Amino acid sequence: MINSRDISRLRSDVEANCRSLLALCKERGLAVLVTNTVRDDEYQAYLYEQGRTRPGSIVTNGKIPTFHSVRAGLAFDISKNVKGEEYSDPDFFRKVAEVAKQMGFTWGGDWKSIVDRPHFQWDDKGSYTNADIRAGRYPPPMPLYRQKEEPMTQEQFNKMMETYLEARAKHEPSDWSAEARAWAEQKGIIRGDKDGNMMYKSFCTREELAVFLERMAKTLE
User: Fold this and answer.
1) In the chain, where does the domain assigned CATH 3.30.1380.10 lie?
2) Cα 162–138–70 angle (5° rounding)?
3) Shortest CA distance to 47 belongs to which of 34, 35, 59, 56?
4) Cα 120 from chain centroid (whole Å)
5) What is the per-residue DSSP string for 97-126?
6) CB-CB contact of 118 with 35 (8 Å)
7) Where is the chain membrane-spanning (predicted)?
8) CA gap 44, 47 in Å, rounded
9) What is the pLDDT of residues 164-182, one digit of tens each?
10) Model pTM greater than 0.85?
11) 76 in helix, strand or coil?
12) Cross-strand bridge partners of residue 39
């Protein structure tokens, strides 16, 4: 059962904007804690049972995860990072939502059926629905947010890219590539860095590609 609060498990564009949201909220004195990012089918079914076959109030109408799914990584939930006040301050969520909506996120507090103040998702301004996500149709990359009144310097961009690439390299590889990865490692085509980190989510340069091709060619000799 997967129920993660790890921001790095979000899709990379959503992850970057989620981190920007946290930074902007901190500047405004809003103590935000990310409580959920992705979940699997089993945990979603567990949530669906609440208020139906388990005690508690109904918190979802979905039997399978959509924007929160491990395959999509397009949504996250938050709370107020103050003990005893996690969900009791509607004004806190409204202030966070003001910032998030300027960035392009959709806020669950605006919904009519089940109002979900802790929830934020990227759906390209409502262009993508739960049905789209279930069918494997995902929204395009979310534009990376930056404040227009503060132009980014080359140094800031370089630092941001370094941080992004380091975080991406630490992402776990997808299950669908397991067989191919095992073959490539067994053949010595992919060997990882000096510490043995395979970095499967890192981008590949042309010189790295040349090394992979050379190693593959040697396996055919």
Assistant:
1) 7-134
2) 70
3) 59
4) 11
5) HHHHHHHT-EEGGG-SSS--TTEEE-STTT
6) yes
7) none
8) 5
9) 888 888 888 889 889 999 9
10) no
11) strand
12) 3, 69
